[in-house]
Design goal:
8 helices, 7 strands, seven-stranded mixed beta sheet, alpha/beta, about 210 residues
Length: about 210
């Protein structure tokens, strides 16, 4: 997983509350374990008409937001089902950071596990940022996870907080597997002790009578 330390990019405004995971990626697109290509289905029902034509006024179909790498949304972003494909679709599209007043807890966790930084800001600050992105010619937002600060298009700097363990996971670019591998010696030592204490747990099915 790519580490997240600093990032600057075009931020797309999506002033909607309660954007659920079915809106992020519809259920018919989740029957796959492949992450590549899921960005094509991100917000598919909002981006495309039934005939496949782009809906021109949707934010990600408008310049310069077509190349957005940061998404700014309303409260309770990612509510609904727990499908991880929603985060896979965001990542495959190129989103590296999402800014919102609040997140659904499972989506927040899935973002961290997939290299996307979820930034929680006061609702008033998010509203200010949304207004800037709609009205100001400048659309770039900069995020520095090392110091936990975000810089708006007008140059104002705002602090945010993130759970220390989640922050370290993103800074080091650790997915759950690589994070566990850091403790390989501890895991092996536990297994060795456990074999002595509970040998029956380690018996193969073929040896059980």
């Amino acid at each position: 997983m790519e580490a997240f330390t600093e990032w600057k990019g075009v931020a797309a405004p999506m002033p909607k509350a309660n954007v659920d995971t079915d809106a992020i990626i519809a259920v018919q697109h989740v029957y796959t374990l492949k992450k590549s290509g899921l960005g094509n289905y991100l917000f598919h029902r909002w981006r495309y008409a039934q005939d496949g034509a782009e809906i021109t006024d949707f934010v990600l179909n408008r310049a310069p937001f077509r190349r957005a790498t940061i998404l700014v949304a309303g409260s309770n972003f990612g509510c609904g089902s727990s499908r991880e494909h929603a985060v896979w679709a965001l990542a495959d599209f190129g989103i590296r950071c999402i800014v919102a007043p609040s997140f659904a807890s499972i989506l927040h966790e899935n973002c961290v596990k997939n290299g996307i930084l979820p930034v929680t800001l006061d609702e008033g600050l998010v509203e200010d940022l949304l207004n800037m992105l709609e009205s100001d010619e400048r659309k770039d937002v900069a995020v520095d996870l090392q110091v936990c600060q975000i810089t708006f298009p007008d140059g104002s700097v705002h602090a945010f907080t993130l759970d220390p363990a989640q922050r370290e996971t993103l800074l080091q670019g650790l997915d759950p597997i690589t994070a566990a591998e850091r403790y390989a010696d501890d895991i092996a030592a536990f297994q060795q002790r456990d074999r002595q204490v509970r040998p029956w747990v380690w018996q193969s099915n073929s040896s059980l009578r």
